[in-house]
Design brief:
Blueprint: H1 2-14, H2 18-38, E1 48-56, E2 59-68, E3 71-81, H3 87-98, E4 107-109, H4 117-123, E5 127-128, H5 133-157, H6 163-173, E6 182-191, E7 194-204, E8 207-208, E9 214-218, E10 220-221, E11 224-225, H7 227-247
Parallel strand pairs: 1-4, 4-5
Antiparallel strand pairs: 1-2, 2-3, 6-7, 7-8, 7-9, 10-11
Helix pairs in contact: 1-2
Length: about 250
């Protein structure tokens, strides 16, 4: 993707389309920033579990990122209110609880402030700290995830407004004849008319329905829109018609 964008940027500059070249350059910079911030390229097939935590006022968020074959596959978080207990001891307890139900990886990465002697009794040389640069990057990523999760939990989860109240307000705002139990959202994005992505997100009674999520990578050719894109568009159109008929509303 980056190579194609760089070619278009150079072509625009050669054609004296300097504003277009600058625009493409900004797109490249944005993509580079996004991928650098959100992922760590491990270039190996090792299994790693990365533990970290974040504290805000009296609340703690413990997190573990599970890397399998060099890829982030899952994460586990736990938020607790600290009532004067030792944070490091709580953190170690969280680590031990994780392996009561999970298989040990090749490495377990923990922050350097955690004394690992007692953990090594259980896990041996699998315990490593942030002495390597790649481990520090993984720990920073885990800390950022813990911070974001804790922020969401504190500011949104315990609000008095329920999902039912929000959906009822949405029904009134849109003047819907029935309660919006199922909500489907569609979107399409592209970069310079290439790398087109179509996606659908489904909510049922205010909760994300992961079994109904769909996404499709679509390609635009010189001849026009591909069959995959047409099939996705037809499926989306069919779903919208069904929703209109069953709910008797105008979208």
């Amino acid at each position: 993707m980056k190579d194609k964008l760089e070619q278009k940027m150079l072509q625009a500059a050669q054609n004296l389309q300097f504003e277009e070249a600058q625009r493409i350059k900004e797109i490249i910079s944005h993509l580079s920033f996004t991928t650098t911030q959100q992922d760590v390229d491990l270039n190996d097939e090792l299994n790693r579990d990365v533990f970290n935590y974040f504290q805000y006022e009296d609340y703690l968020c413990f997190i573990v990122l599970f890397y399998r074959n060099g890829k982030l596959t899952f994460k586990n978080t736990e938020v607790i209110k600290n009532e004067g207990q030792d944070i490091i001891e709580l953190f170690k307890s969280f680590i031990l609880q994780i392996y009561a139900k999970n298989i040990l990886p090749d490495y377990i990465i923990v922050p350097s402030e955690v004394e690992s002697d007692d953990l090594q009794v259980f896990f041996g040389e699998k315990i490593v700290d942030n002495s390597q640069t790649i481990n520090q990057r993984l720990l920073d990523l885990a800390s950022s995830n813990a911070q974001e999760y804790l922020y969401q939990e504190i500011h949104y989860k315990n609000k008095e407004v329920t999902k039912e109240e929000l959906l009822t307000e949405l029904q009134q705002l849109l003047q819907l004849s029935v309660f919006p139990y199922q909500i489907e959202m569609y979107d399409i994005a592209n970069i310079m008319d290439e790398f087109v992505t179509g996606a659908m997100v489904v909510y049922k009674n205010g909760f994300a329905s992961h079994n109904d999520l769909e996404d499709t990578i679509l390609i635009l050719t010189n001849e026009g829109i591909t069959t995959e894109w047409l099939n996705w568009l037809l499926a989306a159109t069919k779903k919208i018609k069904i929703i209109k008929k069953t709910m008797q509303i105008w979208l």
